[in-house]
């Protein structure tokens, strides 16, 4: 479903952020991207969505990520941004949710029906008609996830999806992610959330892949994590 082949990227005038990244993700697989701040996690996802132009080859669902294929890529892949303020741009939550589907030909009535089902699944039906500028940061986070789910992408990239969530909404998010059949790539410092939602972890440091393997094996390896400026998930610190 996703393939990175010799992918590298440097910001203009800066040092390399990604260095010869190579890995593949199977359909339905859940990948946790972990690494300290500045490791290259967000840059990697932006490259996959064509938001920045990297060297090398990136394939999503067999389609190469290029300028002339971006409309197809964005039908295949959704992106939950780290800051929901950059994702929610319509007056109300329901307006954001139906915007994409309606522009792709769905009727407003059908789109609202689908939106109601997603809001119910996420446990946030009360946000339906709320104005985006009047809801909390955690509520915006959940609403932004709902907006991406509306497009039913085959692949969902998520950048720090559990940030700003209270314990109840964090648990709701984890349950929702575990109920999805989409291919997921989740970048997060919340290693307990990664442990509960992902079967595989890719550890990035200095723009390179430092480890790639089963989530439990990597996340219980104290020496490995600490050598890359990370700590054991709280749930494993007594093991």
Topology:
Layout: E1 2-10, E2 16-25, E3 30-34, H1 41-48, E4 55-60, E5 63-64, H2 70-76, E6 77-80, H3 93-103, H4 108-122, H5 137-150, E7 155-159, H6 167-178, E8 183-187, H7 191-197, E9 200-205, E10 208-214, H8 215-219, H9 222-227
Rg of Cα set: 18 Å
Spatial strand order of the main sheet = 6-7-8-3-9-10
SS field, number of helical segments: 9
Choose one word for the global shape: globular
Mean pLDDT: 92
Task: Compose a concise summary of this entry.
The chain is an alpha/beta fold and 239 residues long. The protein has helices at residues 41-48, 70-76, 93-103, 108-122, 137-150, 167-178, 191-197, 215-219, 222-227, and strands spanning 2-10, 16-25, 30-34, 55-60, 63-64, 77-80, 155-159, 183-187, 200-205, 208-214.
Question: Which properties best describe this structure?
Answer:
239 residues; alpha/beta; Rossmann fold; four-stranded antiparallel sheet; 9 helices; 25% strand
């Amino acid at each position: 479903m996703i393939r990175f082949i010799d992918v590298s990227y440097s910001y203009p005038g800066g040092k390399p952020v990604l260095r010869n990244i190579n890995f593949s993700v199977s359909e339905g697989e859940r990948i946790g991207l972990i690494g300290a701040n500045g490791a290259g996690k967000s840059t990697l996802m932006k490259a996959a969505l064509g938001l920045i132009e990297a060297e090398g080859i990136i394939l999503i669902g067999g389609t190469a990520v290029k300028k002339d294929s971006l409309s197809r890529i964005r039908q295949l892949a959704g992106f939950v941004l780290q800051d929901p303020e950059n994702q929610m741009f319509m007056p109300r939550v329901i307006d954001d949710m139906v915007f994409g589907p309606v522009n792709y030909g769905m009727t407003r009535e059908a789109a609202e029906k689908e939106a109601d089902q997603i809001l119910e699944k996420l446990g946030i039906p009360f946000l339906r008609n709320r104005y985006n500028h009047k809801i909390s940061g955690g509520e915006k986070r959940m609403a932004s996830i709902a907006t991406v789910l509306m497009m039913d992408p085959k692949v969902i990239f998520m950048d720090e999806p559990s940030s700003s969530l209270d314990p109840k909404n964090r648990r709701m998010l984890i349950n929702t992610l575990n109920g999805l059949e989409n291919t997921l790539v989740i970048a997060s410092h919340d290693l307990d959330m990664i442990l509960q939602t992902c079967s595989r972890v890719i550890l990035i440091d200095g723009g390179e892949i430092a480890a790639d393997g089963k989530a439990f094996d990597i996340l219980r390896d104290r020496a490995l994590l600490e050598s890359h400026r990370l700590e054991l998930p709280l749930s494993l610190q007594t093991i």
